[in-house]
Design a protein that fits this description.
By secondary structure, the protein is α+β, with helices and mostly antiparallel strands. Helix content is 40%, strand content 21%. It contains 17 helices and 23 strands. Helix 14 links the parallel strand 21 and strand 22.
Length: 499
Amino acid sequence: MAYFLGIDTSTTSSKALIIDERGEVIAVASSPHTLQTPKPLWSEQNPLEWWEAVSASIRSVLEKAGISGDRIAAVGLTGQMHGLVLLNDAGNVLRPAILWNDQRTQSQCDEIHQRVGKEKFIQITGNVALTGFTAPKILWVKENEPDVYAKAKHVLLPKDYVRYKLTGEYAMDKADGAGTVLFDLKKRDWSDEVLAALDIPRAWMPKTFEGTEFTGHINEEAARLTGLKAGIPVAAGGGDQAAGAVGVGAVEPGIVGLTVGTSGVVFATTPSALIEPEGRLHAFCHAVPNMWHFMGVMLSAAGSLQWYRDTLAPDMSFDELLKEAEAIHEGSEGLQFLPYLSGERTPHPDPLARGAFIGLTLRHSRAHMTRAVLEGVAFGLKDSFTLIQNAGLGKVTQVRASGGGTKGALWRQIMADVLNAELVTVNTTEGGAYGAALLAGVGTGAWNSVAEACNACIKITGSTQPKASSVDAYRKSYAIYQGLYPALKESFRALGTKI
């Protein structure tokens, strides 16, 4: 029996997961990370802490599985996207990693658009420059820490620093490469034009690989620290969202991944490098070889319901709140909720956007407000679906749902009705780590393709079909919702510019 190891280096922890060649999860282990915020809106981590957590998690998962390290056939990697790890020529870390949720680089984003031209930048990279991405972080270091910048020789992302410690190789998958916004999206490799415009040396950027390709092998030092056998191949893998899509089987056009956690992510596989003309969607390479994807992100999805419960009904369970809301008809009798509690990202990249209940009357009860929150989040997710379909993907046939927000039957039904698509749940719950393990397995030939691996290992466990009458009702409510942000945008700004 062959076993495959998936490693997920997230912001909060490093997870190690072992699956067998049937796709069954044998064991899971994780070790926590700490987060540093040296200034307001800054977010950093020590890369050495990731390596210590990964090493501990691998040792633990092997023990839990009751197998020796030489039984692992291949390793796959995933992790938090966009973080900047700068190394010197000896491979030593030069400064703490600047993470995906760090907000210090807005002026560098503006500078990137000015240097390259915003429309041209979108056409090359598939994205606008946002503070979360890697490219503006590099410019920030150059402008604010010139001594560090002068010593830099290698640029890596978080999981690729772990790869370096495992194998001694500087390498990156194409999905995460695209997420730096230094990639030529269509060519699936670094953009010499963008790098030149930003004065970033091409030599700093590692070679990139498709998600199932091997990038190196476990070296002797890593074997000693982890319990793995030296020589085990390490697959390229993918960023957390791309690997997570593999982990739920969202690897073909028409099948969309929907993650409803604190934030909400809509992930749609595309057969070519489609680009939303205004850059309102993220367009990246997929971890699936020679595929791409669109991604829309809303910042307060299940987080909106969490805030609502904690603030207005702290003594009630989520199940009790949702039970009350079942008695309310579609549209919440004219009550709407804007879920912009943390600003917004897709389709309105506006940190000053605010949450709001709109249309309150004496008629409305707590049950109406609860249902309005559920519907408002569903409308926010539909914004991404609408952009994806208008950008050329076509009809969405199935939505593969995951995350805590999809556990309640009422919210699943509302989302199926609003999106007008079948909403299914699957048997896999480990997300990116599971997808990384599948990618490694495909690399060994255990499965002939990523699609074959997903079809063999991922099974549908539940289905929610849209109801025609509700689809029509929500179409009208959504049209009203779409007009609310434009109408309130200037009011949001007038309310204050401090985040």
